[in-house]
Structure formats: C-alpha cells, structure tokens
C-alpha cells in the first residue's frame, strides 16, 4: 500500500525506535489518488497487530458505497504479493465525539479497551474524537458509561461544522484534489516518503506553496433540501463572481470548495435559479497560519 496511498503506511508496521520499544500508532489517515493526482478514496487505516514482530494486519475504513471498487483497486496492484484482501462485514464503526461536559474521554475509553477490537483517536484531528470498532450488535452505551448514542445525522452535522470531508459526496472521485481537500491539515500525507500514484502534482503544489481554494464549512440561514441541489452547484459573490462549488451537506450545514480570498464576503448558492445566502468560516482546528 506504500505506493498506493499518500501517507507513510510503514508507520503502522515499524516505529522509529528499536522494534521492542517502538510505539506504533493505532491508526492513520490517507487518500488513494489516480495518476492525475486527484482523490479516488479517503481511508482510515487501523493496525490490528500488537507489535512489529507480528505479521502485519491492517483494517481499512472506507465509504461503504465504494467497498467493491476499493477491493478491485487493491487487487489490481496486488500482483503476486502474498496479501489477503477480505471485507469485514461483521464489524461496526462508532465515532465517539466529546461533548461540552465530556470530561476525560481518553481515560473513560481506556477502561473499555478490552471490549472493543479497535480503539483509537481519530487520526485526522482531535475535534473528531475517537474511533471505536466493535463486533456488530454491540451496544456502545453499555461499553462507555454515560455516553449517548446518537445517529448518523448527528455525526455528519458535527463533521460539517468542523469542515471535515468524508466519502465520495464530499470528495468526488477523480475530481477532488488532496491539498485543496485539506489532506495535509488532517495528517493524511507524507512529503518525505517514496513515490506513490498521483504524487507528482501533489508534491509540486506543496512545494510551490500556493493553494487558492480549500474545502470549508458553510452554513445557510435555513435547512436546504440537499437532494435538490445539483452536484457541484456554483457559489458566487454578491457581484456574481464565481467563488467556488458546493459539495454536500445536511440541514443548514455543508461543505464547499471555496476561494480563500472570498471567505469573508457575502456568498450565495445558485439553486434552481434562486440565490440562497450562506456563510463560510475557517475551522478553529486549522493551523494558525492557514488563514493568512
């Protein structure tokens, strides 16, 4: 996978220190790109093996809608390597998002580590909390006392507030560019590892240091029926100048690819001939120099 993904997957196999003392991360975020350097799939990789001496076992988290496509993509590059690729349909994924009165979430989760095969801080950013993977049918509220089990809409609302893209709706395959999608901000890319598919454009953009558009959280004055908003709907300034494109959202929240120069202006979404006002913001978790 080292030559297929943007991040340095060897971090999950061998740490920086001696094997016995190496502290391997439990998870890693990365994108698979096409040869033109555009995103195909966004992935979170989880380490299943406990030490560098063990045979590596990696679990991939992906958009369920592209499960078959990802398997084909991996098998295409497997060639003669002794690698088994199998879907894990008996597992459930949970996102544990800290609330305002969450307390020490890390210590609470540590107590339930033996009841969850995988327990890891979200590798993208602290504001996304923790990822917990269990066997299907497990009730997480029984594992984590005092927790409240929400629904998938609660999760999407949280990540849209934070401007975190996820899945093919936010990151259209063959369209989204990794650095415009804030991959570097989300710890999803290594600029020091060896070659990988799509590296040339990504590395050149990074070294030039000019990224004029980025994915940003946006908010409307009232909930919008996103199923009626055409894919890639134009967002314009008050003067009618193009400012970017809407990607996806839910209710009054969403995510859009916008020119950074237009972030503080009045913006409007063109929807069915109507202009719907929206506001964009710079996420607080971004590096402090990012908005300059």
In short:
This protein is α+β, with helices and mostly antiparallel strands.
Uncertain spans: none
Number of helices: 6
Supply Rg.
Answer: 20 Å
Please state roughly what percent of the residues sit in beta strands, choosing from under 5%, 5-15%, 15-25%, 25-35%, 35-45% or over 45%: 25-35%
Largest sheet, if any?
6 strands, antiparallel, barrel
Keywords:
26% strand; 6 helices; six-stranded antiparallel β-barrel; alpha+beta; 292 residues; three-stranded antiparallel β-sheet; globular
Give structural notes.
29% of the residues are buried. A six-stranded antiparallel beta barrel has the order 7-10-9-8-11-12. A three-stranded antiparallel sheet has the order 1-2-3, with no helix packed on it. With 292 residues, it is of the alpha+beta class. It is built from six helices and twelve strands.
Strand-helix topology:
Elements: E1 27-33, E2 39-47, E3 58-61, H1 67-78, E4 91-96, H2 105-110, E5 118-121, E6 130-135, H3 140-143, H4 152-162, H5 167-170, H6 199-208, E7 213-220, E8 234-237, E9 242-250, E10 253-259, E11 267-271, E12 274-280
Antiparallel strand pairs: 1-2, 2-3, 4-6, 5-6, 7-10, 7-12, 8-9, 8-11, 9-10, 11-12
């Amino acid at each position: 996978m080292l030559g297929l993904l943007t991040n340095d997957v060897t971090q999950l196999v061998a740490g920086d220190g001696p094997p016995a003392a190496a502290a391997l991360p439990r998870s890693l975020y990365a994108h698979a790109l096409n040869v033109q350097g555009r995103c195909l799939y966004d992935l979170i990789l989880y380490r299943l093996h406990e030490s560098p001496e063990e045979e590596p076992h990696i679990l991939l988290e992906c958009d369920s809608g592209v499960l078959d496509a990802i398997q084909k993509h991996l098998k295409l590059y497997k060639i003669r390597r002794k690698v088994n690729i199998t879907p894990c349909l008996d597992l459930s994924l949970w996102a544990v998002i800290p609330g305002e009165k969450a307390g020490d979430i890390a210590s609470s989760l540590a107590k339930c580590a033996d009841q969850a095969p995988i327990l890891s801080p979200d590798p993208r950013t602290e504001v996304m909390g923790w990822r917990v993977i269990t066997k299907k049918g497990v009730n997480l509220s029984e594992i984590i006392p005092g927790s409240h089990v929400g629904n998938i809409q609660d999760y999407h609302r949280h990540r849209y507030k934070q401007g975190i893209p996820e899945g093919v709706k936010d990151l259209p395959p063959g369209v989204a560019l990794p650095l415009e999608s804030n991959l570097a901000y989300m710890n999803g890319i290594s600029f020091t590892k060896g070659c990988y598919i799509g590296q040339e454009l990504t590395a050149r953009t990074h070294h030039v240091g000019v990224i004029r558009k980025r994915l940003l959280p946006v908010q409307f004055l009232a909930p919008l029926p996103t199923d009626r908003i055409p894919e890639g709907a134009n967002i314009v300034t008050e003067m009618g100048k193009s400012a970017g494109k809407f990607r996806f959202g839910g209710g009054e929240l969403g995510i859009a690819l916008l020119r950074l120069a237009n972030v503080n202006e009045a913006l409007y979404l063109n929807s069915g001939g109507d202009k719907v006002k929206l506001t964009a913001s710079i996420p607080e978790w971004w590096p402090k120099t990012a908005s300059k």
